[in-house]
Design a protein that fits this description.
Layout: E1 7-11, H1 15-26, E2 30-34, H2 40-57, E3 70-72, H3 76-80, E4 85-88, H4 94-104, E5 113-116, H5 123-126, E6 136-141, E7 150-154, H6 161-173, E8 177-180, H7 190-206, H8 212-221, H9 223-227, H10 232-238, H11 245-262, H12 270-284, H13 289-310
Parallel strand pairs: 1-2, 1-4, 2-3, 4-5, 5-6, 7-8
Antiparallel strand pairs: 6-7
Bound molecules: nicotinamide-adenine-dinucleotide (NAD).
Residues 11-17, 34-37, 40, 76, 89-92, 96, 100, 117-119, 140-141, 143 line the site of nicotinamide-adenine-dinucleotide (NAD).
Length: 312
Amino acid sequence: MTNTFDHVAVLGTGVIGASWASLFLAKGYHVNAYDPAPDSEPATRSYIETAWKQLQELGQVSVDFDPKRLRFFDTPEDTVKGVQFIQENVPEKLPIKTELYSRIETSIAPEAVIATSASGLLIKDLQKGFRNPSRFLLGHPFNPPHLIPLVELLGNDLTDEEAITFAKGFYESCGKVTIRVHKEVPAHVANRLQAAVWREAIYLATEGVASVEDIDKAMTAGPGLRWSVMGPHMLFGLGSGGGGMSTFCARYGDSFHRWWDSLGSVQLNPETIEILVEGLKSEEKGRNFADLAQERDRKLIAVLKALDDASE
Ligand SMILES: NC(=O)c1ccc[n+]([C@@H]2O[C@H](COP(=O)([O-])OP(=O)(O)OC[C@H]3O[C@@H](n4cnc5c(N)ncnc54)[C@H](O)[C@@H]3O)[C@@H](O)[C@H]2O)c1
């Protein structure tokens, strides 16, 4: 199968679905959408207006804006008819997802691929929604998918390898960076990395080692900057001064073992949450949600543009 199709479906147009729809439209696809929330269509169209400008700034728009290329349907069955790629983004609840899958399965073209954005549910549980799950896989994005390049791909022994190859080609043609997850573990790869860092960030805050604001600053002014350029393995390989990873491990292995032994374990209990809420309030300095989200996206776009320039 080649990527010559022109219709895709987006099921669920909340935080993630609206962002996916923006990207697919910008890449020239017709997008069929379904979301039972009463205001889903106007909310999605309004989201796309903002996202479109951001994608334009990133040079990620391949076609002129045409609102008619987004079409909302009244049923999920009609939404998926005749499309070759379906991105499912309904709430992270197993019964909602599996019920939807069994509802649409007979309306999906046999060669179509269906990918779920699910962050934490297991593929083997989600597959139970299909009589034949061979064209179903995980295509897990990072919020917001129209800006953050990463998509994690995962299938298992019930998944047709060709479906994964097709999804990889499709996402990459939309400018995404894919990774293959070979073994099912909760939260895949990137969210596990985030969870590990956040656990220690919370531990440092609750132990009073530094304020919430300073812990965030330590990340954005330090490792976070480097991690947008290279991953931890490559960076520590470079930290060897030339001898590579074995030199780095010989030099710093004992330190890391001591540090790992001292890492904290936390619970999001009311006391911990109170420390985080108060700490964040102070870090926000009166800025509201919309201002902060705008600042995040503006800076993300600047970083993405700079990285793109640097890779040329
Ligand atoms: N928010 C994130 O940061 C993030 C990141 C990556 C992946 N995800 C995953 O993406 C999926 C969607 O998350 P979200 O944050 O967009 O949630 P959301 O609540 O913002 O959106 C879910 C949408 O699905 C709609 N919906 C409910 N039932 C439906 C049905 N039967 N058919 C079609 N639509 C239905 C809701 O009306 C809502 O608009 C989840 O599986 C989540 O784990 C979320």
